[in-house]
Amino acid sequence: MRYAPPIARLLEELERLPGIGPKSAQRIAYWLLTAETADAERLAFSITEVKRTIHFCPRCFNFAEDDLCNVCADTQRDGTAICVVEEPRDLVAVDRTGEFRGTYHVLQGAISPMDGIGPERLRIRELIDRLASGEVTEVVIATNPNVEGETTALYLARLIKPLGIKVTRIASGLPVGGDLEFADEVTLGRALEGRREM
User: Whole-model pTM?
Assistant: First the structure.
């Protein structure tokens, strides 16, 4: 079926979004076409507003509306610990646990030679600059437990340990509610390595 040019352009733009295929793009487009004009305008305004007002925090590279992001501006945070994550969404996930009250550093990706992403394309130099202040005593590496995340974690550990700063890695293993019989060997091995006394 051929769509009117404005609909075809909308579908094309929607399909460029991550996780949106042709069927999802079609559902969203149909919703927009049948929604109240005010609803569609609110969505369009929200998109343009976020692009106009949000930028990367110059300290940690999280999303920020003001000069610094909410985390960096929080004076109640423990400045001696930095949790390193790949993306801003990872920062949100870690912070939501309430278990970490330090600051963060967002790498904006992970080392992935297959995708042409080397350390120079990440915010690693800025992290090392932050560590030069001498205030930080621990760096918690919370990159994803995949090949790219592990590569990035090892690279960071090799850079940071000579600075005399404690480097830790978040534990990985079995999810709560998971069954041992369905766990792969790597996941189960990590769970055993990360065991702790009860």
Answer: 0.85
